[in-house]
Amino acid sequence: MELPANVRLNTDESYVEKLKNVMAKNGGYCPCRIQHTPENLCICKEFRDQLADPDFTGFCHCKLYYKEK
User: Fold this and answer.
1) pLDDT beyond 80 at 1
2) Domain extents for the chain?
3) How many CA atoms lie within 13 A of 44 on its CB side?
């Protein structure tokens, strides 16, 4: 999924690298979710829903992505 222009990665590069390593080992699932379901593939459904909300500003659940207004 291509990120919208108002979404960026967390600025903590070491944190981003750790999350990407975990996701590389677990098939691309959100590292904060226990169940490996389609809804939990990164970018997870929760954050996709937040992206669709024009009033939402903030991080996704695992703090990998940040949505600005």
Assistant:
1) no
2) 13-67
3) 20
Query: Counting Cβ atoms within 10 Å, is residue 24 exposed (0-12), middle (13-18) or buried (19+)?
Result: exposed
- The dihedral built from the CA positions of residue 34, 27, 30 and 42, taken in this order, carries a sign that is negative
Helix locations, 1-69, DSSP H: 13-25, 45-52
d(CA 11, CA 63): 10
Is 66 in contact with 4 (CB distance < 8 Å)? no
Q: Is the pLDDT of residue 48 over 70?
A: yes
What are the two backbone dihedrals, phi and then psi, of residue 61, each rounded to the nearest 5 degrees? -55, -45
What pLDDT is stored for residue 2 in this prediction? 82
User: Cα(54)–Cα(51) distance, rounded to whole angstroms?
Assistant: 7
Whether residue 69 has pLDDT greater than 90: no
